[in-house]
């Protein structure tokens, strides 16, 4: 069956019965991924019962992203058990489009502005903590990626659910979320067996869902009492309340044109439905932003001339007041800081592959049709390292976004995907990283202990530096 499905595209000539290359994939090697991508525009492997086609070019990736009639996001089999089968990310067609419409209002400019005070509050707390940790350690280099993960988890939770969640719960989620990530890797066993990665991942996912459901219940009470919305959850609940009042007015006989129809009319979502959606937001953001943050801080430490330019710009947009609180107008003026963030996301894209399930035979090229039931995985890395779009792609060059034509390469900019499943929070993610590095440049300094492995890439859902040690200085 494997040879029949392979039909001439690049791939092993045979597979180990049942498990395929499972053992060599337990500790994924970026260099092997890269070799696979460069072996041909289409290649394949087979793991367990899944036949997997890998699409390496920009055009193939875009074709897959924009083919909802043929493919749907699938993550891995175990994802349905962790995220729940009724989760909105598994919806297809019109149901998925309609659900997304109800979420668009959570990422408007007004909404993004309202989230900034909470984000900055978290930054203040963790920068102080980072400095104290470094002092206690005698300013010796220590691994900081786990701390960045906790910081980004805290920022996400504050943005998603405000102060409804306790600091202890945030810390628990930050500590345990990697269990969910590990459970959702491609090469795990497709069933839950006690004391395996999938078992621990399921327990962690249950805990996160429970915490978010509690927050939802609290928000509904507070918003019904007229509270001011200050997080994504609040804004979603306010939309539901406005929609229900509109339906009540219609039921009372008020003419539609006089009933005050909201921009988006939503149904009532249960606490658990809201919880599932917030979990997918966290799943989409936690590992990706942790990756981008880790690379960005390392690169700025290794290239202090870039960090100096960020500091100069930060003081300029604040009119010399380094204590000025962040606003969206201020972020709009951060041309160089934005270039640093975009170049980080291009140079070391957090999401390097996006798995899809093929719903029906999909003619991907003139010579090859991906069989129904297969998995097809477009990579974003090659499009973002295409020398025709980004000259000297292995060089970190933020000026390509200012004086170059990188902004014009929209077809190659696949950091957040494209098509019907593009990332809803892409603007939020970039603004969050800009706010983070901008504030850090004014309040702390940091050094990086460079080693031969510093630029080597480790794959764990996303990509990280293999060595991640840095002390924070006041």
UniProtKB/TrEMBL annotation:
Its EC number is 1.14.19.41. GO terms for molecular function: C-22 sterol desaturase (NADPH) activity; heme binding; iron ion binding; monooxygenase activity. Heme binds at residue 423. Keywords: Heme, Iron, Metal-binding, Monooxygenase, Oxidoreductase. The keyword Lipid metabolism does not apply. It holds the Pfam family p450. Its cofactor is heme. It is an enzyme of class 1 (oxidoreductase). GO terms for biological process: sterol metabolic process. CDD domains: CYP61_CYP710. SUPFAM superfamilies: Cytochrome P450. It comes from the Eukaryota. Belongs to the cytochrome P450 family. PANTHER family: C-22 STEROL DESATURASE ERG5, CYTOCHROME P450 26. This is sterol 22-desaturase. It comes from Eremomyces bilateralis CBS 781.70.
